[in-house]
Amino acid sequence: MLQQLLTVTELGGSRREIGLAHGRTHARLIQRSLEVYDRLFHDFVGIRWVRARVEAARFGRMIERGFPEILEEMDAIAEGAGVEPLDILTLNCRSEISLTRASGGCSAFALQRAGTQWLAQNWDWRTDQLHNVVVLKIRGETSAPLVSVGEAGMVAKIGLNAHGIGVCLNAIRSQTCGEGLPIHVALRKILESPDLESALAVASRDRVCSPAHFLVASAKGEAVGLEVHPGEPGRLPAEGGVVTHTNHLYAPDATAQVEDFPRADSRPRLARLDALLRREPAPSAPMDERALFEILADHDGEPLSICRHFNPAQPPEERMETLFGVVMNLTERRLAVRHGKPCESEETLVVTL
């Protein structure tokens, strides 16, 4: 498939101004995302877009309680893209609708080395969404500038802000869904947080209505894995400056409350991340962006590898591939992303705050 180069979409102003610009700039990609998720919802949970909109409507009330101002931005995205507000709400609740039967294959890690705090991950999903990936640089009126790499029409996914707060995401397959913020709305609230305490409070105070793993870190050298769900999140503290995660729950506080159904590749990828990151060099040795992209490009144990390629042996709805790799230097407020598989190109888009 012909690869398109990513560019940065700069958005600013009020919630409405940010949303309108997002919708107008990426109207074609948003329309394509709606078509993609119509197919994905059918493949994953046997429903079409019309039924998915009904499912999504109830999450609007949860957002109204926990992050009401983001609804204005979502409505403006819809206006700018020429779709209905409920379409954008449904898109932003796609995890809650689709991840009861299928999960992505993302591999994420935090690494603190020689005074620099890193966050990195591959985002693995269906190839249908490869060309609907966008990089948003947002300068809002009420929060610090932020950068988010995600899907057109969605308010956030993976990124960092000018305070040095960053977040990665791992999908968790589970039939649990309760009260709280939808995953991608919670990610945006984390990216608007001024400090680590506020970011962690999104999971512990606001709560997240369906299970996922948020890997949150700060430029001060702090990192924690949050296995979020409607109850108190499971916490995974850094050990030797390292936190690793794939697509299964393993914090005791989370596994005691939530049942998950991971894919067979999740544990092998986690073991490989640990083998690569918990070996020498020592925590005092420096690390660089290129070396971290090499980890994201690792094929050990393929097809159950960190860098994921098309695998015809899997059922069609489970054929996940790496759609982008991202490396964030929180200390320098620098985000680097490679669109597609990080093993196939060194073309890197860099955004700094």
Automatic annotation (TrEMBL):
Limits of the Peptidase C45 hydrolase domain: 115-342
Position of the signal peptide: none
Coiled-coil intervals: none
NCBIfam families: C45_proenzyme
The protein's name: C45 family peptidase
